[in-house]
């Protein structure tokens, strides 16, 4: 993927900037009707309402990965999400399909916390320390290059929905797991399946060192020192305050939150689990939700028979996910109609092949 382009490449055309929201809405609907089945638009749950309303399918990372793999008809896949999701769509798509990301600035800070050179260095050091006892697993919130590394080294991808199953699978292959790039999802999931904290170490890619006190032979999980900038902002102070203010509250959080917050919550789970749990909850119940604000607000507006609010009242939406807005979506669709699609996401062939291997190991389970 070409990450950096000139400022001009990100500047909306003046004719779009002059349109009202209603006019943009109408134009998007018109183009969708014109393109018909030639166009497919998946949208992540964290997208703005102005964008998600046009999505042909919505979901979390696992759902959208499966959707992208299943859709073989559309010529153009306009991915309303962030760059690693668009890369995944390109990896799983057919040769005749073109994947577009409406705004190339829609990245992921977590994915950027592990680059290939860092991972290769870590792998070499850890192999010397621990021998051929490790298998790499990467959260789908990672670059295509990291997925490819895992594919090449007998590993796989995972999502928050299937992390438990994938860790169980990986431990059946090797004695230890190198978990990329989110330490919190790795720690929370490993603990859930019975791995004690004393058997988890943290790899610091900045200082190229393993953070662990004790006998390395006891280490089973090696957690990459990365995190989600949104979910790490939910704190124990938030938990304590909410429980004091709302004694009957149910706290549900995403497993990208820190270990102490996940342990203090009533329930933890993927975006999909959070949605279904609240949708199926009894009327009159109160829910404090530890995940991205666009989704929390949407749940609050839809589940009006319950009280739903953010666990952190000062939380902002995911800034990079919010790069995809109505004007950029329209601009992307117009580029297709004009015959010059822009912001095309194309993964290099060898990277694509190895990354597909890692994804396929997950999708087959």
Structure characterization notes:
It is a single chain. By secondary structure, this protein is α/β, with parallel strands linked by helices. The chain folds into three domains: 7-107 and 320-348, Rossmann fold, CATH 3.40.50.10800; 111-224, Rossmann fold (3-Layer(aba) Sandwich); 231-310, Rossmann fold (3-Layer(aba) Sandwich). 42% of the residues lie in helices and 15% in strands. It is built from 16 helices and 15 strands. The strands form four sheets. It has a six-stranded mixed beta sheet, sandwiched between helices. Strands 13-12-14-15 form a four-stranded parallel beta sheet. A three-stranded parallel beta sheet has the order 1-4-5, with helices on both faces. Helix 4 links the parallel strand 2 (42-44) and strand 3. Helix 3 packs parallel to helix 15, helix 6 crosses helix 16 and helix 8 packs across helix 16 (349-363). It starts with 6 loop residues before the first helix and ends with a helix. Residues 1-8 have low confidence and may be disordered.
